[in-house]
Structure formats: C-alpha cells, structure tokens
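Practice problem 4.
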C-alpha cells in the first residue's frame, strides 16, 4: 500500500498538469450530476468494475507473454490478479474519474518470443481481448439477473454487474486507440515494425502528453461512444 502512495506522489510531482485535467473532469461531472453525493455514489458503484477490469487486463498481458517464453512478468510478480500489483496512478485516476484508463503496464522482453512481431501483437491484444470476453460474460449475468428479477440489494448487484460489463467494453475500445501508452499503439508498432524508426521513440516519450491533448478535445469520448453503442447492441 505504501508503494501505491509513493507512485501517486511521484506521478503528481512529474506531471501536475495531468491532475489538473482530472480536476477539470471531476468539476465537469459533478456539475452535470448536480450533487457531490450522487456523483460519489455512482463512482463507488464502479469500483468493483475497475478492480476486475484492470486486474484481468494486465494479468492477461503477463500470462500471454509468459506463455510465449518471456519470464519477465513472472519475475516481476505480475502473474497475479491482485489489483495492488497492477495499479497505475495515471490510469487509475483517469478510469475512476473519466471512465476510461489503464493499469500499470506489464514489462516484457520480445526477444524471448520465437516470432518477435507476432508475439508482440498477441501480448498487446491479450488485455483488450480479455476485457471484451469479460463484457460478454457480465452481459449474460446481467440478463440472467433481470430474468430472475431484481429488487432491494439485488438491484445494487445488478448495477455493479452492468457497470462491469460496460466498463470492460470501454476499456477494450479505449486501449485500442493507437496512442502511447495504450495497447493500440503497441499493436500498430509491432505490425508495421515502427520500432526501427527514430521518430517512434520520440512519439513514445510524449505519449502521455498526446493522450492529454486527445482528452481535452474529447476524442476518446467520440470513439468510445461510436463503437461502444455498436458493441452493446450486439450483446442485447
């Protein structure tokens, strides 16, 4: 737990502008909701979804990399569903306050893969694939709860189940955006072998700044709204 607080403190020290952006998002959402307590209640109902979505997402990266011959995730203790090992301050605050984000990136060494580019693509897609599978599973559970009938405490459970489905859809779509540090960037990088170009490293180093600009102009919102609606229509 102390390690988490240390990471939060260091993240704020390195990039205070990111947390100013979060403050703006919080102010905007509270204004829309109309009540701080209602806003906090809604956010609390998303916490189980965040824990499940992020933990499974990052575990999937680690598991596939390990199965492809890379011992790095296991050596760093990432072959676990324990959310404390997958916590990333930027990604957590973004997903909690804005509804989309990421976990602590799993470090891998593609040199262990028999096919470096194919292995890199498979590892990069493992997280979002897991999110979409979880979305299907929790959609089924939600429909089952509705058929049984919800009321009282069961209604809260149904909301949490629906939120878990919804958040995993968002995580899957958001992380496919080809912008560092997201999985979509790694997918296109391995597919087109962008790592051989010098500009790739410069773009990679400015990834969080690029993402902040996209957030300011609500680009992820438009992408998620478009594809998320289509995905939900398939489930229901």
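Answer key:
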């Amino acid at each position: 737990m102390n390690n988490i607080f240390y990471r939060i403190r260091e993240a704020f020290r390195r990039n205070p502008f990111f947390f100013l952006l979060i403050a703006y998002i919080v102010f905007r959402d509270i204004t829309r909701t109309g009540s701080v307590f209602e806003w906090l209640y809604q956010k609390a109902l998303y916490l189980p979804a965040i824990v499940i979505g992020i933990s499974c997402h990052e575990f999937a990266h680690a598991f596939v990399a390990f199965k492809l011959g890379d011992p790095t995730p296991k050596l760093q203790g990432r072959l676990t569903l324990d959310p404390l090992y997958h916590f990333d301050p930027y990604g957590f605050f973004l997903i909690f306050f804005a509804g989309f984000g990421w976990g602590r990136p799993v470090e891998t060494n593609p040199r262990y893969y028999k096919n470096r580019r194919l292995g890199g693509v498979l590892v990069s897609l493992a997280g979002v694939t897991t999110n979409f599978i979880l979305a299907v599973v929790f959609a089924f559970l939600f429909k089952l709860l509705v058929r049984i009938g919800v009321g009282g405490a069961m209604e809260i459970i149904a909301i949490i189940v629906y939120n878990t489905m919804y958040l995993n859809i968002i995580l899957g779509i958001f992380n496919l955006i080809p912008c560092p540090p997201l999985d979509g960037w790694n997918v296109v990088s391995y597919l087109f072998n962008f790592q051989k170009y010098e500009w790739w490293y410069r773009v990679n180093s400015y990834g969080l700044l690029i993402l902040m600009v996209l957030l300011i102009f609500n680009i992820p919102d438009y992408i998620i709204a478009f594809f998320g609606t289509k995905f939900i229509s398939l489930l229901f």
